[in-house]
Amino acid sequence: MTSAPSSASRTFAGGMWSFGRIIDRYATDGYGPEIGTLRTIELAAASGELVGLDLNYPFDAGVGVADVKAALDAHGLVATNITPVIYDRRFRSGSFTGADAATRRAAHDLAEESVDVAAALGARYVKFWPGQDGYDYPFQVDYPTLRRHAVEGIRDVARNHPDVTFGIEYKLKEPRNRLFWSTAAASLLAIERTGVDNVGLVVDFGHSLFAKENPAEALSLAHETGRLVDVEVDDNYREWDDDLTAGALHLVETLEFLHVVREIGWQHPVKLDLFPYREDPGDAVRESVATLRALEERAARLPLDELRAAQAAHDAMTAQRLVRTALFG
Amino acid sequence: MTSAPSSASRTFAGGMWSFGRIIDRYATDGYGPEIGTLRTIELAAASGELVGLDLNYPFDAGVGVADVKAALDAHGLVATNITPVIYDRRFRSGSFTGADAATRRAAHDLAEESVDVAAALGARYVKFWPGQDGYDYPFQVDYPTLRRHAVEGIRDVARNHPDVTFGIEYKLKEPRNRLFWSTAAASLLAIERTGVDNVGLVVDFGHSLFAKENPAEALSLAHETGRLVDVEVDDNYREWDDDLTAGALHLVETLEFLHVVREIGWQHPVKLDLFPYREDPGDAVRESVATLRALEERAARLPLDELRAAQAAHDAMTAQRLVRTALFG
Amino acid sequence: MTSAPSSASRTFAGGMWSFGRIIDRYATDGYGPEIGTLRTIELAAASGELVGLDLNYPFDAGVGVADVKAALDAHGLVATNITPVIYDRRFRSGSFTGADAATRRAAHDLAEESVDVAAALGARYVKFWPGQDGYDYPFQVDYPTLRRHAVEGIRDVARNHPDVTFGIEYKLKEPRNRLFWSTAAASLLAIERTGVDNVGLVVDFGHSLFAKENPAEALSLAHETGRLVDVEVDDNYREWDDDLTAGALHLVETLEFLHVVREIGWQHPVKLDLFPYREDPGDAVRESVATLRALEERAARLPLDELRAAQAAHDAMTAQRLVRTALFG
Amino acid sequence: MTSAPSSASRTFAGGMWSFGRIIDRYATDGYGPEIGTLRTIELAAASGELVGLDLNYPFDAGVGVADVKAALDAHGLVATNITPVIYDRRFRSGSFTGADAATRRAAHDLAEESVDVAAALGARYVKFWPGQDGYDYPFQVDYPTLRRHAVEGIRDVARNHPDVTFGIEYKLKEPRNRLFWSTAAASLLAIERTGVDNVGLVVDFGHSLFAKENPAEALSLAHETGRLVDVEVDDNYREWDDDLTAGALHLVETLEFLHVVREIGWQHPVKLDLFPYREDPGDAVRESVATLRALEERAARLPLDELRAAQAAHDAMTAQRLVRTALFG
């Protein structure tokens, strides 16, 4: 295992969407004004805590890759990854698993474009978040077909670019009631079926939590399979993807997640996936990072030999004591 | 108890929003094209199954009350109620419980306007769905203040119009993570504190279900307190307000809900609260109504004396048998 | 408001059940050996952190009230309250709401006995936890009858003893799938209907959490109505009454709960409701108390003026910052 | 695909536990009297609807395999499978994943014994339900070690008996808060890692439902991987393993599950996993079977060509209509 970074050297990335206009089905006029692609980059940089950005593609009309590159450079940010928008109106009933071949082809084509954009921006990977790939009602789809489309769609893109890394961000539901890439294990099982080596998993703490996983265990599993591509953090009430600030509710489980992040020697930025509907996104980022730094500093205090001994004995009360002492002295 | 209507004479109403453009935080370009106020009325009528419509107010720019009245009349629909939009950007952090007095005043004023509109359209009541009244994070609000604003805000409007009926549609969460008007009991308790007689409850089957209530029990409670104002139906996976077609998943609990609807002698239309993101709204209405009619026809087959005897003995297996027999012969 | 006790002076009570043999439907031979009534008192005292005990009644065969009194005295413990066992085999289908009058009478009689035992032991109140009062299946019970029995059963006992305090511990479910005394608001509404002044609410942090309430808000509501009788703490995964050690998972919400405990000037011991299936109960108590003391010490650091200002503005990010700073410096 | 059996020829099996004394942490005196091994067989047969029984091993003290064989024969029942009790006090902190080698060895030895018992009784397979294999608290275990023990423990038994079939019944939680064999996908992924061919999955409708899967999809996945060993049915409120009668709540999803049971040509008995705490177990079995027969008869009415066309188009409203028509004509 590589040596873990100190909490001081831990870096953070963000999602472009956290800085844009958020909208939902009730506040259809948005929770704030329209904010363009380039402005989100400025705002992300202004948070003062981010080194990189997860970028949705396509960008705004009229904004080219070179414009984005220039904005990132100007603000000292990198593109951590490109996330093609395979979940808007065009793909409302599925992207790679859409019912008609033309939609599946459109998803494929957008993915191909995203590979080019990622290369142009020097992004580490292309992320798929297939948020419309699934179904809503019993009896709505044929499951073998859904599985086949899901696996083949990703595989076909990945095979075309054996040197590019692809990460799938799983989520139990929303906007579909049932998503195909639902849990860490379901996704790893399907990824194995792609038969390619360059597709892996993005483990989002919040997605894991409301999928009824323990996020630290899911992260450990993804790492062990050699398929871990990225790590995202946020928080929620265990039932929905609330995208609250990191550590807002689940400090112990966030601490354990960061402990595993350290144990596996994670060297890339940890990404924040926030939806600050009513908050200033800069505040939400800073508050999250401050909490994560405090927690990682506590994680560094954990007496690892004692902890491992307690874990070898499944000794919950000793583990709790060590955690409490690390947190509160 | 008044004699229950036969299932043949049961009528249904809908929500204007089911026929408009639905949008969410991912498909920010909407699940379909823009649809104006008057067109939603046309589409609602075209479903062929509705006698009335729950109308959000304000209407589209340029559409007056007289226009809406004319459209309703032309299509043979009534306005069941007016629902002021106290949950858009202006009220994103609360309407009657907003932090600043100006926002609370704006909510009050919009409610007052809605009373006028309801009168002009002959609507039976004004509905409040205070979907932004609550909070997202622990420590975010002072609970006594939140309660006071919630109760006083509604009370002040209701006192001004003692002859007008107001109904509060409770919901556990969304878009806020925690809503004040959360459950049937929490809402009835707060309504008691208003000290007025003309405020009651809108019981939505789906809201009740994911608030971890049994909808039939919640409906019975609201009726018993004399505070039942309206009844809405839909379905979900018990964790979120999915607004699926009625009976899509929970046939037995929908049947029990309809059984209570009959037992209490409900005479008004039963309202559908659907969000057909990817479906034709007319189809969603027709499918819901067909299921509800089938279920009510089965509810009418329940041998009430035997059922009451089983219930008096808390005899679940006999009750199940009677239900199964009513459903499947 | 009375002045809040310092965290140093905060005292804790426990539940007798935490020290006895725990059993469940799978480990039907129990998670440990049989432990008698008097031995649980010894073990509770030996934890070194408790001043009082919630005692289930009846005691073991052959153990009299005087024996219990002597054991409590010998170990320097008080009986905080008596909890009649209205949820064992005899009451498996309901106690005060049981289908037959004889069962309801038996519940009444056991409650009456418990009043005597409470008096003999100097307990502050009699607690009802009506864990079998509810139902499991749709259509199983008639809701108006269930409500009537629930309210009248408690009322009849309370009326007989106007100088005795009774507390109802609400819980959403378990062992019944649906319990009558389900949420804080549902219980307060029903308590109002008893028409008596000496019945109130026991707010258990864990029960509140998995009833999808925010425990701090529920506690504040119970206090405001003048119906708060006792306060219990523990933790769970928000879906079931796991009865884990306090603060094991939800540190921020436990902190907020303790903040309200302080704000309302709570002077009685805070009670632990733990089920340490596989852990030493003394360890579980000590670990819980250590966490609660650490959290209360942090609660005492909260800058109340700043917090109130943030809450008046519904300013989540400032509230989060104050909480984080209190927790981690 | 083999031709599906008609609903008339569908047979059912039960679990021995449904007919024995049920106990839980509150009714520690049990929901009824003690009932011995041989008596449960009698009662199962007396239900009149079962052809086989899932048998927990060890049997009661003094009851030998020959006694059980004789009782089964006398009542015309078969042993569908043997389920070693790897979840009682001895294994309270884990069986194959227990912290100490002696416990893991004990689990192995009991599994070996169960193989012999299964052979003696002619059972089709040995079922593992590792209900204590997991953890309760964050930081309690080392996840790589847990995974290794879980996989190796099962593998070692299976390798010793390449001609014996083993089935793992997954469950998200209970009695542990977090179980290792949690979901269909997590279990299939781990089963792949055993590297043996004779270990598969038992898909329980209720377990799948509260693991937030769609049971029909989970069943389809298990079948497709060639790892489906058995199928169990029951119902619950989607949050816990309530083990209600089949179809008590989720008729549509139960119908879809039965539809997949038919599509995959399942020929073995469908097993009921019920915990009739307060009901007569014979009634619970008969009510479940009657509902399942009614639903399978409706499943047989589904127009498969139309359904497949709707599914190919992801056409939820048409699928709903076909389902409704099959259910209600």
TrEMBL record, chains A, B, C, D:
Listed transmembrane segments: none
Keywords: Carbohydrate metabolism, Cytoplasm, Isomerase, Metal-binding
Pfam family, one: AP_endonuc_2
Keyword Mitochondrion annotated: no
Domain Xylose isomerase-like TIM barrel: residue ranges: 63-294
GO biological process, one term: carbohydrate metabolic process
Subcellular location: Cytoplasm
Name used for this protein in its record: Xylose isomerase
Organism: Streptomyces hainanensis
